[in-house]
């Protein structure tokens, strides 16, 4: 039996990784291959039967997994960031959540005959969307930047809010189901433990992080371990209060001042692949196909209410007195796929409610999975054509993401920003990011390939990547990541100007991307030129001042970087040699080019002065001769 459990755990890990890769390769939400895999090896062929294999271990596995999911989601709920992203996001995660909850709860009660308590619990479970399903869909659809931002931030913020709502409803049901306890007293005690212990533990962890009481390599592990310990302790103090406790703990930690949790949030990537993905396969394998089919047309009708009534009503009510057009609102009305949070929390609650003997608990999980399957599959297939029909697709993205925020990148970004070109600087170096912020430039601090970046790096209007950083090991990873996102011809890097050994030679596609600004332009060369006083300047190339004239004025050492032509941003690469007229050229002018241009200006000024002096002398001679001639005429007269 032990060998069977070990084999199944290993298989879950392998299948999780495979499904994540398939989702990445096909540009689909990973939840689709995970769901399909779980259904095939579970109810399909009966190969994986979680309840039989894991037995009493199943509940602790799901319980701890859900605790991790809710805690990590709560870490992203920074109240300041909600305010920074517009009225529409704030409305959707507050008023919109209540409208959706009420619509789904009433429909479930009327159509499926659920009790009001179970109907409202189901409604609370399926109000959440989540970035893990929204972000892959947005990458393939590419809607307008403001719509993408609204959907992305709604998914991030509503995860912990919806989960917190579901926890509160569940705790009310669990207390009501206990005839030996006074309902209000028990529920109040449960809320007190959850809120009190959550806030206290969040402050405790924040105090440790703020004062650097742990070595850096222990921070992620310590926070995860403390969170799990708090979860267990809270459940021991008051049954069923642990989920509320860890959610409050994460929210409290996310909103503490001077506490850096970026590394902890980034740690979620490993947990997502190794824990959450395996958990989702496990949950799908537990799905009772007979229970799913028993929902019948009533279940389909509830799905219809979720997609065609609850979401549109929520969006149109929240969109009042905003700048969104009718087309924008209709697009947002069709984009609300459900994800892993709904599946995980519903499975956990179903197990607990079944143990309490609550009627209808066995139908919660099949109904939640029906909503997940319906929303993800239908909206993934139809959102693209719907966006094109409404004409809410973004135009060709002309903006630039620059990886590396050193002096050269900052000066280039300032010039581009002055030309109304969207540009964002990303860097792991805090000093570079701080200086860029002082220049009022959009920045992202951290690894731009991380899941944290996928959620928080604002990519609206950005369609190309310039790798201008000294991080030799990270540069290829960033390039490969964004070649998949933008296309191989939209990623540019600086050459190394040295031969790599066969062992360390990288792919041909990466080598082709190392053509930025010319064949011999390296990061060291750019940094050296900037340190010596090089300037980045914009020059109009016209018929009267051609690129040849530009070369004559500034010399061959002048380095073309980027040029703007008819509203399009084009990158100067090693394959470019000549530039046409009618463009605005942004170039790097070393000190030699500046001195050459200055010498030419001085020469021109001297020539102008000489011509002016000669003209003055000629005028004086002319005036003198005219004066003498008038005198002669006067004498003759």
UniProtKB/TrEMBL annotation:
<feature type="transmembrane region" description="Helical">
    <location>
        <begin position="186"/>
        <end position="209"/>
    </location>
</feature>
<dbReference type="InterPro" id="IPR038770">
    <property type="entry name" value="Na+/solute_symporter_sf"/>
</dbReference>
<feature type="compositionally biased region" description="Basic and acidic residues">
    <location>
        <begin position="628"/>
        <end position="637"/>
    </location>
</feature>
<feature type="domain" description="RCK N-terminal">
    <location>
        <begin position="401"/>
        <end position="501"/>
    </location>
</feature>
<keyword id="KW-0050">Antiport</keyword>
<protein>
    <submittedName>
        <fullName>Sodium/hydrogen exchanger</fullName>
    </submittedName>
</protein>
<dbReference type="InterPro" id="IPR003148">
    <property type="entry name" value="RCK_N"/>
</dbReference>
<keyword id="KW-0812">Transmembrane</keyword>
<keyword id="KW-0472">Membrane</keyword>
<keyword id="KW-1133">Transmembrane helix</keyword>
<feature type="transmembrane region" description="Helical">
    <location>
        <begin position="31"/>
        <end position="48"/>
    </location>
</feature>
<dbReference type="GO" id="GO:0015297">
    <property type="term" value="F:antiporter activity"/>
</dbReference>
<keyword id="KW-0406">Ion transport</keyword>
<dbReference type="InterPro" id="IPR036291">
    <property type="entry name" value="NAD(P)-bd_dom_sf"/>
</dbReference>
<dbReference type="Pfam" id="PF02254">
    <property type="entry name" value="TrkA_N"/>
</dbReference>
<feature type="transmembrane region" description="Helical">
    <location>
        <begin position="6"/>
        <end position="24"/>
    </location>
</feature>
<feature type="transmembrane region" description="Helical">
    <location>
        <begin position="331"/>
        <end position="351"/>
    </location>
</feature>
<feature type="transmembrane region" description="Helical">
    <location>
        <begin position="54"/>
        <end position="77"/>
    </location>
</feature>
<keyword id="KW-1003">Cell membrane</keyword>
<feature type="domain" description="Cation/H+ exchanger transmembrane">
    <location>
        <begin position="14"/>
        <end position="387"/>
    </location>
</feature>
<feature type="transmembrane region" description="Helical">
    <location>
        <begin position="89"/>
        <end position="112"/>
    </location>
</feature>
<feature type="region of interest" description="Disordered">
    <location>
        <begin position="612"/>
        <end position="637"/>
    </location>
</feature>
<feature type="transmembrane region" description="Helical">
    <location>
        <begin position="363"/>
        <end position="381"/>
    </location>
</feature>
<keyword id="KW-0813">Transport</keyword>
<dbReference type="Pfam" id="PF00999">
    <property type="entry name" value="Na_H_Exchanger"/>
</dbReference>
<feature type="transmembrane region" description="Helical">
    <location>
        <begin position="221"/>
        <end position="237"/>
    </location>
</feature>
<feature type="transmembrane region" description="Helical">
    <location>
        <begin position="271"/>
        <end position="287"/>
    </location>
</feature>
<feature type="transmembrane region" description="Helical">
    <location>
        <begin position="299"/>
        <end position="319"/>
    </location>
</feature>
<dbReference type="InterPro" id="IPR006153">
    <property type="entry name" value="Cation/H_exchanger_TM"/>
</dbReference>
<dbReference type="GO" id="GO:0006813">
    <property type="term" value="P:potassium ion transport"/>
</dbReference>
<dbReference type="GO" id="GO:1902600">
    <property type="term" value="P:proton transmembrane transport"/>
</dbReference>
<feature type="transmembrane region" description="Helical">
    <location>
        <begin position="118"/>
        <end position="138"/>
    </location>
</feature>
<feature type="transmembrane region" description="Helical">
    <location>
        <begin position="150"/>
        <end position="174"/>
    </location>
</feature>
<dbReference type="GO" id="GO:0005886">
    <property type="term" value="C:plasma membrane"/>
</dbReference>
